[in-house]
Write a structure and sequence with these properties.
This protein is an alpha/beta fold. It has helices at residues 15-18, 47-54, 112-116, 147-150, 153-165, 185-196, 208-216, 231-238, 257-263, 288-291, 304-316, 333-341, and strands at 4-9, 19-24, 35-44, 72-80, 92-95, 130-134, 138-140, 177-181, 200-205, 221-224, 245-250, 264-272, 295-298, 323-329, 348-352. The longest helix has 13 residues, at 153-165. The protein is globular. This is Enoyl reductase (ER) domain-containing protein. It comes from Podospora pseudopauciseta. Residues 16-351 form the Enoyl reductase (ER) domain.
Length: 355
């Protein structure tokens, strides 16, 4: 392979200080038996990337020195090690954030330890022209998507899939009611997947412009949470008999759980998938779950089996992930981080990587 470029984190003092663009030169001579050499064609950002870059309050833990950031990516296999099975040169692949998860059990779910040891933190990630990764850190990508589209699935896509379909016998289906929050990657992916199976989606946002986009994507109702303080109760009133939604995909944690509990029906499910809200939002009245019995379920990414099921779903339903209007080049990664930090994006921020 020809030499390329990669971003590294020289520390955790914030992306503007710690992100550095340097030369990258990986050759097939470096391949171990379990390794795959990938020419990356696209990457996308997550809120996790911002948090890792500054490790504010020690939330995420330390990084491997000079690690390549980014967990989400898509590309083409260039070469494989002698023990690699099921992959070969020319295959289109997408990355899996938690390659340290034991591969013997395809249904195993990653926990915090595997997430903290994952791509972009302890293992080199996707903000580079090329990456050398264990075969357990990639799977074959959807045949119907471009690399830029496929690069959105690694975290937000898989997390949304696990939230909606991860509990056997309680998968979201046609006619169900789902509440999603905001217009970030997980929320938009959950909206798209729910609409694809015929579910009814209620969405929240603080922007009239974004509200129109949510409706265009299939949301039946949109609530402005800045204008409607009790948006959980408002969402509940949209459901048949005002019984409440079957599922809430909660991306904000402490600061939104009160409203999520107000919105969910008896025996419904609240999936906690993110911490975009404040950590010190006060006491969370979990006793509310006693008066409205429901499942409150934490979701961290998903299993490799769920990931492969997601790929099949995207192909069968012809789902095309929504991306932000602004597409960045590899040289412009700091601007991409800034756009995410300022919350100017809609859905996923993507980086197109040229050879």
């Amino acid at each position: 392979m020809t030499a390329g470029k990669k971003w590294i984190l020289t520390g955790q003092e914030g992306y503007d200080t710690s992100l550095q663009l340097v030369d990258s030169d990986i050759s097939t001579d470096q391949l171990g038996p379990d390794d795959v050499l990938v020419q990356l064609q696209a990457a996308s950002l997550n809120y996790r990337d911002l948090v890792i870059a500054k490790n504010d309050g020690g939330v995420t833990g330390s990084i491997t020195p000079n690690v390549v950031p980014g967990s989400d990516g898509a590309g083409m296999v260039v070469a494989v090690g002698s023990s690699v099975t099921g992959l070969g040169p020319g295959d289109r692949v997408i990355t899996y954030l938690a390659p340290t998860l034991p591969p013997s059990d395809e249904t195993a779910l990653p926990g915090a330890a595997e997430i903290f040891a994952g791509l972009g933190q302890r293992v080199d990630g996707t903000l580079a022209n090329q990456m050398l990764i264990t075969q357990h850190g990639v799977i074959k990508g959807p045949s119907n998507l471009t690399p830029v589209q496929a690069a959105t699935l690694t975290c937000s896509g898989l997390t949304a899939w696990n939230a909606l379909f991860g509990v056997s016998g309680r998968e979201i289906k046609k006619g169900d009611w789902v509440l999603v929050q905001g217009t970030g990657g997980v929320s938009i992916a959950a909206l798209q997947f729910a609409v694809a199976v015929g579910a009814n989606v209620i969405a929240t946002t603080s922007s009239e412009e974004k509200a129109e986009r949510l409706k265009e994507l299939g949301a039946r109702h949109v609530i402005n949470y800045k204008e409607t303080e009790d948006w959980g109760e408002a969402a509940k009133k949209y459901t048949p008999g005002e019984k409440g939604v079957d599922m809430v995909v909660d991306v904000a944690g402490n600061s939104s759980l009160v409203q999520s509990l107000a919105a969910v029906r008896t025996d419904g499910i609240i999936c906690l998938v993110g911490l975009l809200g404040k950590f010190d939002a006060g006491t969370i009245p979990m006793m509310s779950a006693l008066w409205r019995p429901c499942i409150v379920r934490g979701v961290l990414l998903g299993s490799r089996k769920q990931y492969r099921n997601l790929v099949r779903f995207v192909e069968e339903k012809a789902v095309v992930p929504v991306m932000d209007d602004v597409v960045f080049g590899l040289e412009d990664v700091k601007e991409a981080y800034k756009r995410m930090e300022e919350q100017k994006h809609f859905s996923k921020i993507v980086i197109k990587i040229e050879e």
